[in-house]
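Module 6 notes. Inverse folding takes a fixed backbone as the condition and produces residue identities as the prediction. Think of it as a translation problem where the source language is geometry and the target language is the twenty amino acids. Below is one complete input and output pair. Work through it position by position during the lab.
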């Protein structure tokens, strides 16, 4: 082989090696960015990865409950967003042509987003779902004209924190009680709101599960249904008389709605 042909051959070989090395680096960089993009922060790869975690099963004792109906709720199509709070989100839907409210965990709510800054998404989600379960358990017991009526629910919570808890409540649909609605009310309508509130406080004192502490009694926890005001957010209710831990707890004047 002549010297010039040998030189051209070496140049070609060198360029091929550089070309292949560059292609390898680019391919590796692309692969790395794809992998890191899908990596879920703060969640370990084994048990807590939300994409691998199964949804919890249904507790056996709920099978015989007539209000428990996961099949029905899983196949309902939510029509539109109604309102949300820190923990829960509410949509409207139709069931047998009747409007209903569907309440479930608010994945983008303050409760979950604040919690997820320091804890795993799964744990935060499960805590929010547990609040819905508490609300379900209270709605089963508390039947009153000033408390929203539950029609169906679905609760899947049987396992420990290795599975994702799931809870949905279907209730009668109301209108969120806004400041504007209150301002537009006639005096008669306002008097009715005060009567409903007094009625609720009275019921809280004599409820079938005992005295209820209405710990978060605020306007956004109520809805209006045919001019009646009904409590819809029950997850902060304290059941039973508050207990004194220290002497000071019982001697100071504490305003408590019981
Ligand atoms: N049955 C319902 N019909 C219409 N709106 C509702 C109903 N239940 C709740 N809402 C609205 O959804 C909002 C969030 O529900 P809520 O139970 O208060 O969640 P959170 O615990 O996050 O505060 C409420 O402020 C209320 O305006
Ligand atoms: Mg609320």
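Target side of the pair, the amino acids:
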């Amino acid at each position: 082989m002549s010297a010039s042909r040998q030189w051209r051959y070496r140049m070609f070989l060198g360029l091929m090696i550089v070309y292949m090395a560059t292609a390898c680096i680019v391919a590796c960089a692309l692969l790395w960015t794809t992998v890191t993009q899908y990596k879920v922060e703060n969640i370990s790869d084994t048990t807590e990865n939300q994409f691998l975690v199964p949804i919890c099963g249904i507790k056996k004792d709920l099978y015989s409950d007539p209000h428990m109906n996961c099949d029905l709720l899983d196949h309902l199509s939510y029509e539109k967003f109604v309102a949300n709070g820190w923990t829960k989100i509410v949509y409207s839907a139709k069931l047998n042509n009747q409007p209903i409210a569907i309440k479930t965990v608010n994945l983008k709510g303050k409760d979950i987003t604040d919690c997820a800054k320091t804890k795993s998404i799964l744990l935060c989600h499960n805590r929010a779902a547990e609040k819905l379960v508490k609300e379900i358990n209270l709605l089963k017991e508390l039947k009153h004209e000033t408390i929203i009526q539950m029609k169906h629910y679905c609760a899947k919570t049987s396992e420990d924190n290795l599975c994702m808890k799931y809870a949905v409540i279907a209730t009668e649909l109301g209108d969120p009680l806004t400041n504007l609605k209150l301002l537009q009310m006639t005096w008669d309508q306002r008097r009715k709101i005060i009567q409903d509130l007094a009625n609720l406080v009275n019921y809280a004192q004599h409820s079938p599960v005992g005295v209820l502490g209405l710990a978060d009694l605020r306007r956004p926890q109520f809805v209006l249904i045919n001019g009646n005001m009904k409590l819809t957010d029950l997850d902060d209710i304290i059941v039973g008389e508050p207990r004194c831990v220290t002497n000071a707890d019982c001697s100071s004047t504490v305003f408590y709605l019981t």
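Reference fact for the lab report: The chain has two domains: 60-173, 176-244.
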